[in-house]
Each structure stands twice: as structure tokens, then as C-alpha cells.
Specification:
The chain is α+β, with helices and mostly antiparallel strands. About 20% of the residues lie in helices and about 20% in strands. A hairpin with a 2-residue loop joins β9 and β10.
Length: about 250
């Protein structure tokens, strides 16, 4: 506040408009910096079309990376006998999985703009799915067309070669079809067919439910592009030929 004395004993007080205006500029500047930071951490080859246009804003990076809406921890011991029985039954009916569909390695590494990730033996980034459950038991809820877009990291013996991933964090879950899927930190992990090249991570924040997985099973929230739709499932189980990674229409996975 400024005080002026124009004379004749009069005192005039004037509100200083400079400080509020300066604050407004600081807020605008911070927003612009955040926008540039988001674009700077996007995957190589990033474009708005790859991630959908006008999607919801990304979730805040200060979210609990391991948070989920599952049942409380004190339910973790419920139904263990039933689970074991179901696992035994599913194992007997487990399908034969071609070797080229198996995940034989889990390699912790770092990629540009994202940082810590886990890749398979071919260098493809692995993801976790918020609709999966880990309490009171681990359940993969990505089946059917979802599994065509997000191929599960399958195994036969549950013993992939580990590089930088703690063996205590690695396990398996029996899927609906009887096959075994690798888990990290109890979370089932998947590839994304939208990743056309090793080391890319276009599956980050797809549907607001899919996230790059870190070596301990938590979400990597270093960079979050806008929520986008997944690519469409390939027809007749053939490889996706759309190099642009075009989004599917109304897929919930």
C-alpha cells in the first residue's frame, strides 16, 4: 500500500495493484512451465493423435503409486484354501503356450523421459492395470479383446531370468484360461501392442488405468500424457499393422 500526502494536511491511501498482477503472472508462468514439462517428458514420437485429443487431464504425480480400491488388508487371508484348490484345478487345464508368447526375462532399466521401467527379453515395456485385484487374492481382469491389446506376460515355470528385479517381488497368477501370468509386487504385468518399438511406452495412462510398472510393482508416474484410448484389438489375432497407433472406439480396457 502506498501513502501520498498531496498537501493541506490530507493523506490519501492507494492500493498497490502491482503485487496482485505479479502473482497472476507467476501463476500463469507456472502453468506454462508445467505444460512444457509434460510435453518434454512425453515418449519419443509423441503426438496428440497418439494419445487422443482433449482427454482428461493427467492424474497428479503425488498420488500414492501403489494405491488401489481393493478390499482391506485384513481380508488378505480369506479364502486361501479355496484359492489353492482353484489354482490346482486351473493348472491341470493350463493351455500350451507357444515359446514366442512367453516372457522369459524381467529387466529393470531406465528409458528417456520416463526413468525406471521393467522390460521383457525383447526390450518391451511392461505395464500394470488398475482394474486388476491384489486383495484378498491376485486376479487378472484383462481377458478377451483386452488381452489382445495388452498381452499378458506369460510363463510356464514362473522363473524368468531377473536383472535388477528382486526375486521376492516376482510371482505368478493363474488366469481365467488356466495360463500363468507373471506378477511384480503382486500386480499382473502386460505388454502393449501400441508399442511398436522396444523401449517405447505409449501405454502410459491409457484409459487412466494402465501405467508403466516399476521394478517393485508400483506405478511409474514420472510422466503422464493425457488419458487416451487404447489401440483397437487386431483382427483375427493378427499383428496390428497400424504404425500410427490409432485409438480404438469404445474400449473400456
Amino acid at each position: 500500500m502506498r501513502v501520498l500526502q498531496p498537501g493541506h494536511g490530507q493523506t490519501i491511501q492507494l492500493e498497490d495493484d502491482v503485487v496482485p498482477e505479479k502473482r497472476k503472472l507467476m501463476v500463469v508462468g507456472a502453468a506454462l512451465a508445467a505444460a512444457f514439462a509434460l510435453a518434454g517428458c512425453a515418449p519419443a514420437g509423441y503426438s496428440a493423435g497418439d494419445y487422443g485429443s482433449g482427454g482428461a487431464q493427467p492424474a497428479a504425480n503425488d498420488l500414492d503409486p501403489s494405491a488401489d480400491a481393493d478390499a482391506p488388508a485384513d481380508d488378505a487371508v480369506a479364502g486361501e484354501d479355496d484359492k489353492a484348490q482353484k489354482d490346482d484345478t486351473a493348472q491341470k487345464d493350463a493351455p500350451d503356450v507357444p515359446e514366442d508368447k512367453l516372457t522369459t526375462e524381467l529387466n529393470a532399466t531406465k528409458v528417456p523421459r520416463m526413468g525406471e521401467v521393467v522390460e521383457d527379453q525383447n526390450g518391451f515395456t511392461l505395464y500394470r492395470f488398475d482394474d486388476d485385484k491384489i486383495k484378498p487374492e491376485v486376479v487378472s481382469n484383462c481377458n478377451g479383446d483386452c488381452a489382445k491389446v495388452w498381452p499378458p506376460a506369460l510363463t510356464t515355470d514362473g522363473k524368468p531370468k531377473l536383472n535388477g528385479v528382486d526375486p521376492k517381488e516376482v510371482g505368478t497368477v493363474t488366469r481365467a484360461d488356466g495360463s500363468k501370468q507373471i506378477t511384480i509386487g503382486d500386480w499382473p504385468v502386460y505388454r502393449y501392442i501400441g508399442d511398436k518399438k522396444a523401449g517405447t511406452w505409449k501405454g502410459q495412462n491409457v484409459g487412466g488405468k494402465w501405467f508403466v510398472v516399476k521394478p517393485d510393482g508400483t506405478k511409474n508416474l514420472t510422466c503422464l500424457p493425457k488419458i487416451s484410448k487404447p489401440v483397437a484389438p487386431p483382427a483375427d489375432d493378427e499383428e496390428q499393422n497400424d504404425e500410427s497407433g490409432g485409438a480404438g472406439a469404445d474400449y473400456s480396457y
